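Journal club prep, notes for RB
We'll compare a predicted complex against what the paper describes. Inputs for the pyridoxal-5'-phosphate case:
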Amino acid sequence: MDLGYILNQLGEERERYFGAVAPPIVQSSIFAFPNVEAMREGFRDELGEHVYTRGNNPTVEILRRKVAALEGAEDCLMFGSGAAAMSAGVIASVAGGDHVVCVARPYSWTRAVLKDLLGRFGVSTTFVDGTDTGNFEAALTTRTRLIVLESPNSMTFEQQDLAAVAALARARGIRTLCDNSHATPLNQSPIALGIDLVAHSATKYLNGHSDVVAGALCGSSALIRDVFRGPYMTLGAILAPHDAWLMIRGLRTLPIRMQRIATTTTTVLAFLEGHPRVRRVYSPRASDNPQLGLTERQLAGASGLLTIELATDEVAAVERFCDGLTRFLMTVSWGGYESLAFPVCAVFPRDAPLRPPQGVPLNAVRLSIGLEDADVLVADLEAALQRL
Ligand SMILES: *Cc1c(COP(=O)(O)O)cnc(C)c1O
């Protein structure tokens, strides 16, 4: 299936709605049946039929089919956030007494569901440095049921060898779940590499317009049915039809946005790597990244995330840099049409030490490259670096 078909045709039944090119927003919580037998049929398959919008809504279903096809998965469930999608994937995979192995420094709410929420229900988690596949193997116990991956992660971009981890898990009957938000389905296909479940914060590149919070979870029909009957229907963290419609629209331009972002990011990366006021650049494609070989093998193209460590040990100087940016909006999240800057120091008190025991130093700023011209972004960064 080619990309154009997935994005423009798949799941759309235009003849059923007046030939409308854009799909209708089926803003209905419930769907009525002509007779008892039809209703009985509906209950037999709430995931495939239309009974209640907490289960399956026609507008959301169009999006499900497109995202599943992009990931090379049999099925997909959409959620009201990426955090809900990851949580559902985890909750559907473990029971009290089970053990999980998770990559070190995952997205903060992935850590929270494993450690804080499921920790209260007797699920234990070991966090390991995922850059060495051997660390996963060493952490396995007889109770390990799930391996949680995030490759690359969204701050310092460490990667895991997905095929190697998948093979290791499959041989032992352990399920794998990978957060693929950073790479997008265009640049990395975890399912083709043997991963069981793939999650997205669709808030980021998939929607790409900073106007919807959404999540996706993709996998085999059997696994997705399991998640549907479990956390999906139970927790009810659904994507509303209107937001699904916005996401379908956002998705139409995913390939062209990612192409443009990749080109611009390559230019910005080269500029930052050569700049005397930048101490270090984190990127899967940074010239000093020890995982460049894995990047070559596993990531088809560049995303727009870069983290820089400024050549200063003073938070006040970091603030001067960030406050001096005029084209990068200062905020959380990433993956939109607009360039963003996220200063790590903003989440710490003013007098915090520069190098916290865990994670990145406070002179780090994450950039998300958007659709602006590369020379505009480079000029903005240059001007802000001069304020350091
Ligand atoms: C943002 C993010 C999430 C959570 O997604 P939401 O849509 O904000 O709930 C999960 N994983 C990664 C890598 C993220 O960046």
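Talking point for the session: DSSP finds 14 helices and twelve strands in the chain.
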